[in-house]
C-alpha cells in the first residue's frame, strides 16, 4: 500500500488566533466607520482624543490607533490645540479685527 502524506489539520489555537484577528479587523472597521461618520455628520467638528473616546464609546488604545490611522490616511488632521478635525475643514480662522475696524465699531456705538 502506497504511503500517503499525513493530512495536516489546523490546530485549534491557530484557528482561534485567525478568528480573533478577523474579529479585530472587523471591529476596527466598525470603529473607523463610526469615528469617520461623526466627523462627516458635523462639519467643523473639533474633538480631543478623550472626547472622541467618550462620544463613540471606544476603548482608549483603540481610539488612539484609529485616530492616528485617520490622520495618516489624510481624513483627519490635528489642530495646534491638539484636537482632531477633518483635514478638509482645516483650521477655522479667527481673524483679529484691525484697529480701523475696532474704531468704526466704537464710532457706531457712540453715535
Spell out the key features of this protein.
Arc Repressor Mutant, subunit A; mainly alpha; 111 residues; 57% helix; single chain
Annotated CATH architecture: Orthogonal Bundle
Largest sheet descriptor: 2 strands, antiparallel
Amino-to-carboxy terminus distance: 112 Å
Can you count the helices? 4
CATH class category label: Mainly Alpha
- Uncertain spans: none
Could you tell me the strand content as a percent range?
A: 5-15%
Order of helices and strands: HHHEEH
State Rg.
26 Å
Total beta-strand segments: 2
Mind telling me the CATH superfamily name? Winged helix-like DNA-binding domain superfamily/Winged helix DNA-binding domain
Average pLDDT confidence is 80
Provide the CATH topology: Arc Repressor Mutant, subunit A
Amount of helix: 55-70%
Shape summary: rod-shaped
Order of strands, main sheet, comes to 1-2
The assembly state of the depicted protein chains is: single chain
Question: How does the helix and strand content classify structurally?
Answer: mainly alpha
The number of distinct structural domains comes to: 1
Amino acid at each position: 500500500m502506497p504511503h500517503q502524506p499525513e493530512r495536516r489539520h489546523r490546530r485549534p489555537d491557530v484557528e482561534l488566533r485567525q478568528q480573533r484577528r478577523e474579529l479585530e479587523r472587523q471591529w476596527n472597521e466598525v470603529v473607523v466607520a463610526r469615528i469617520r461618520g461623526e466627523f462627516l455628520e458635523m462639519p467643523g467638528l473639533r474633538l480631543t482624543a478623550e472626547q472622541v473616546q467618550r462620544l463613540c464609546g471606544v476603548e482608549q488604545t483603540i481610539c488612539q490607533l484609529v485616530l492616528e490611522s485617520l490622520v495618516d490616511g489624510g481624513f483627519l488632521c490635528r489642530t495646534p490645540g491638539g484636537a482632531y478635525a477633518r483635514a478638509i475643514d482645516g483650521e477655522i480662522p479667527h481673524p483679529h479685527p484691525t484697529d480701523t475696524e475696532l474704531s468704526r465699531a466704537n464710532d457706531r456705538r457712540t453715535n
